[in-house]
Structures are given as structure tokens and as C-alpha cells.
Design brief:
Blueprint lengths: L1 E2 L10 H7 L15 H21 L6 E4 L2 H19 L5 E5 L4 H14 L2 E5 L9 H7 L4 E5 L13 H10 L4 E4 L11 H4 L3 E5 L10 E5 L25 H15 L2 H22 L4 E2 L10 E5 L5 H10 L2 E2 L15 H5 L4 H4 L2 E5 L6 H21 L4
Parallel strand pairs: 1-11, 3-4, 3-5, 5-6, 6-7
Antiparallel strand pairs: 2-8, 7-8, 9-10, 10-12
Helix pairs in contact: 1-8, 2-8, 3-4, 9-13, 10-13
This protein binds pyridoxal-5'-phosphate (PLP).
Length: 386
Amino acid sequence: MIFLDAAATTPVRREVLDAMWPFLTGEFGNPSSRHSFGDSAARALADARAVTAGALGCRPGEIVFTSGGTEADNLAVQGIALARRTADPRLDRVVISAVEHPAVEESARFLERVHGFSVDVVPVDSLGRVTEAALAAVLRPETALVSIMYANNEVGTVQPIARLAALARTQRIPFHTDAVQAAGWLPLDTAALGVDALSISGHKLGAPKGQGALFVRGRIRLEPLIHGGGQERGRRSGTENVAGAVALATALTLSQDGQQARAALVAELRDDFIGAVRAGVPGAVLTGDPAERLPSVASFCFPGTSGESVLLELERHGVICSSGSACAAGSDEPSPVLLAMGFDATTAQTAVRFSFDATITAAELREAAAAVRTAVVSVQSLDPTS
Ligand code: PLP
């Protein structure tokens, strides 16, 4: 099988498993315990926090470990917006882009439904890009927070985060970015990006599912979502997942080692794959920005098919990929991301995403491109309307 669904998840890396193993077995202490087992767990957690902070260019105290990207996004969007409105009741609006992951979008909608906020949605262009002009048009004196993703999980478009964050900063509005898909491929230096909050998730990087982290700049107040014993400096209660934090820190470090060269190499393979798919399926439409896109994502619409059928047919030919995004899987609805980019609902239903990790080879992608042609032709021949 050729696994081309790395944007959905990745296997745990051997080095990561080795690093976390002691904290699942012999060194199983609770970091809050006042004895030697607790102390060694607390040290491991502190080390993991320092390493994570190093990778994100921030201070250890600015890292909150969470149960994954979804929780990090919820904590950023709700936690910052609620804390700001408590400090100033006029701050009752949040800004998100039209292509956010549901973890951000639904957090904003929750603020609207339950807490009386208004949500302003920045539109994207046909390549899925948020422009500075489009963001400037929705910023208001009442905006409590802006949340715009770094790289899109369905089409791979990379946003000009530093420029968008700088724009928000001119109006003193905190800026959060969901960097779950960017991590491992793009620079994550929070100081250079100029963001106030940034979410990452371990399982996209070779750490286990259920582990993430949120960077929150020191001066930004955060209303916690999970209440209890006051762990994570009161920002996220609950006994810390020491092994998970160690895993995330290890995976992040590994992913940053030689990242630029690896990203360039995979981007080249991606472009060859895109060329081969287009040659095999002349009607294929590449979705997302052809240039400013994740090295690891090639996404298409195949008019005259259904994405779901192509996906099944591809699996029969030994290629695993995803139709739309795994996070929205199980729904037959056309992708809101593609609709926001101006695709009609029928075309949006034909979307297929191929996403790779750094182990991908040219030979695998050649084989996959040939399978794409076979699968699309076979699905089109079954569809009486095509
Ligand atoms: N944000 C983006 C852009 C994602 O792609 C995902 C998962 O696919 C998430 C957030 C959620 O992360 P997690 O699966 O760790 O909850």
C-alpha cells in the first residue's frame, strides 16, 4: 500500500516511542507529586516544555500542553476571546477565515451561540488565500481576536501569516494561527511570525494522537476551558500527559532537523506528482495555490467523478488517500473550503487529497499517479452523466 494520507495522521516514529516509553513504564510518576517519582516526571515535563518552546521560539511558560490540535484551537479562540471580553465588554467580535478547520470555526460559532459574540468571516480568493486587504476590511474596534490558519488541511494553501499578524498588531488585536498542518514543513518561530498564539498537534509529526500544544504569548490573558487542579499554570487543568509531552517535543525536534532541505525535496516530488496526474487525467483541476502550498499536499477535483468513489477505487489499486479532509469525513456535504474558494457543489464533491510525509519516494508517487489515472477513468466510465 502507498499511504498518501499523512495530513490525516502519521505513524509514531521509533525515536519518539523510545523517548516516551520510560514515562509510560518505570518513570510513571505524577508531576504534581512531592516525591522522587513525581520529581522525575516534573523534570521530564519541564524538559519537554523547554524543547517545545525552543522549537517555537518562545519561553517555556508560554507553552500549554493540550490533548491535541482541536483542544489547542478551542483554548486559543475561546480562551483569548472570553478573557478579553471580561476585561473590556465592548470586545465581542471574533474574526476567522472562510477556510478554517472545524476546531476553529466551531469554537467561533460556540462563542456566537452561547456567549453572544459576533463572528466576522474573512473571504478567500479562488486559490484559498486570505489577503491583507480582505482582513483589513473586517477588523473593527470591537474585534477581540483574529484566528487564521497557517496552512490549509484540504488544499494546502499557505497564508501570509507574518503579514496578516502584523496587520492585526497595528490595531492591538491578538492573532492566533492554527499551525497543525504547517508544523514539520514551515518555520514555526512565533517571534518571526509575530503571532500571539499558535496551535500544533503531535500526530501529524510522528507523535501519538491526543497530544498537542498551544503557544500563548506571555502578556495575553487566557480564560481556561478545563477547570480543576490548576496544572499548566492554571490554563489547562488535569494531570499532565508526561509521555505525550515528551513525544511531542521529540517529534518537533526531529521534524525541524534539516527541515528546509526536506521540504524542498518533497515539494519537488509533489510537483512531479501533480504533473503526472495532470498528464494522466487532462480534466484534473489542482485546488489551492500552485506556488504557496504545503510541500506535502496535492489536491485535485476530478470532474465527472465522485471523490468518494475515486478514493475507494484507488484503495483497490493500492493507494490510500482522502476525499476532502479526514476531519470532515463521514459527511456527504461538499467541502466548505472548496465552496469558499468558489467551486460549485458538484465539482467540490469530486475532491481528492493526496498528502505525504518525508519518507515518500519518487517511485511511489509515479505508481500512485498511474493508479489515479486508472481509478478516475474507471469511475468516469461507471457514471452515466459523465
Ligand atoms: N487543525 C488542522 C488544520 C487540522 O488539520 C487538524 C487535524 O486534522 C486539527 C486542527 C485537529 O487536530 P487534532 O486531530 O490533533 O485534534
